[in-house]
Protein: Sporulation initiation inhibitor protein Soj
Amino acid sequence: MGKIIAVANQKGGVGKTTTAINLAAALAEMQYKILIIDLDPQGNATSGLGIERSRLKRCIYSVISGEVESEEAVINTSIPGVRLIPSTMGLAGAEVEMAGQEGREKILKHKISPLVFAYDYIFIDCPPSLGLLTLNALTASHSVLIPLQCEYYALEGLSQLINTVNLVKKRFNPELQIEGIVFTMFDGRTNLSIQVVDEVKKHFRKEIYRTLIPRNIRLSEAPSHGKPITLYDPRSRGAEAYRELAREVVEREKERKRIR
Ligand code: ADP
Ligand code: MG
Structure:
């Protein structure tokens, strides 16, 4: 059975989508079977994988609304071993529509449950809010992976997110774990980056990955070519960092299984 991991942080621009795509691609290089679910109405994961959104007939919204089964919404990407349930603009209205439904936090969980046997890892790329879509992602997931940008307010946003995770655990998904916290856009030349990492370490030492994702221009260029960094510039620092993160994710999983 595969593991469902929500990539979440209510702040925009912290590296959620970059992490979802590139971690997925790095795990696929290791021969794992991966599915990405683009749960952001902005659809950056979809376009970043080179999929033209306006041509799509089906997306995660068609799944949530019950129009199609989850399997029917899965499409191939240019990355071997990585498939995608894309997002279209239709998803923008989903939160409002779901709001009135009974069990509204569990809709996604029920819809995607058949997929869990076909993949090793399923990443849900969350929108930048703690609204109903993110609550659905957290309820549907085994764990949450949190990208943190090395900036002054990082810790503040993190406590708010952890509160939401605890709320979801209590009410909708007792099994939910913190997969890990990954620092993105790290710049070892600035004191701020180093200070932020040290500060977060005081509170979340266990959760933080050793791998620091550096600020790397190649990482920001890759989406406009519709490629993950591992294909766009396989030898770049960004590609190496996401491969290292992938190894760490797998290592943690093995360690957890050993302890259980
Ligand atoms: P989010 O999904 O959290 O909104 P993104 O992954 O889209 O964030 O990243 C925001 C912007 O920062 C994008 O333009 C992306 O290309 C860029 N970016 C993300 N990570 C890095 C990095 N490590 N180095 C340089 N640019 C990055
Ligand atoms: Mg995003």
User: Anything to note?
Assistant: The chain has a mean pLDDT of 95.
